[in-house]
Write a structure and sequence with these properties.
The chain is mainly beta and 172 residues long. The chain is built from two helices and ten strands. The chain binds zinc ion (2 copies). The site of one zinc ion has 5 residues, from helix 2.
């Protein structure tokens, strides 16, 4: 499980909302920023940082994530959206109902999604985090759509649909 990382208040100042951050593509991680959560796409055109502890880490077996990632199962790290910033002007977005996914327009790496039903949160693909081993998943979501040959005997809680109850009470 990821640890609570103390936030350096000076690093929060000036944090802008998603997409408005000045470009810092290719900037090496300063040692003072090592405690932050960060990641980026494969080609380096897009970088992101979060100055808050993860809200959740989980696998998703839904068909939409499968199409979006091309992988049999996806994993995500959820953060408060207003504490995250993304740099670079190559971010592309694809909207499918309430879910908008972002990806790199150059290398195609899937990066994150936001869900209108879960306001204020952003879920980054676990595999684009700089230190993915820090984020051990704690649950499986949408196991009702799990592929029959995917077996992950990790003992984690399994949710037939979403692991998060929507404001309307429907966990879909
Ligand atoms: Zn890229
Ligand atoms: Zn999914």
């Amino acid at each position: 499980m990821s640890q609570e990382i103390p936030v350096d208040p000076s690093s929060v100042a000036g944090t802008s909302s998603l997409g408005n951050h000045p470009a810092v593509a290719g900037e090496p991680l300063a040692s003072s920023a090592a405690a932050r959560h960060s990641g980026g796409c494969r080609c380096g055109a897009i970088r992101f940082e979060v100055d808050a502890a993860p809200l959740s880490v989980g696998y998703c077996h839904c068909m939409d994530c499968r199409r979006a990632s091309g992988a049999p199962v996806s994993a995500f790290v959820g953060f408060p959206a207003d504490q995250s910033s993304m740099s670079g002007d190559q971010t592309r977005r694809f909207e499918n109902g309430p879910v908008t996914r972002s990806f790199c327009g150059i290398c195609g790496s899937p990066l994150a999604y936001v869900d209108r039903r879960l306001p204020g949160r952003i879920y980054f693909m676990l595999g684009v985090m700089d230190m993915p081993a820090r984020y051990a998943p704690t649950l499986h979501a949408y196991v009702g759509e799990q592929l029959p040959f995917v077996h992950m005997p990790d003992g984690l809680p399994q949710h037939p649909k979403s692991s998060v109850t929507r404001p309307d009470g429907d966990p879909s």
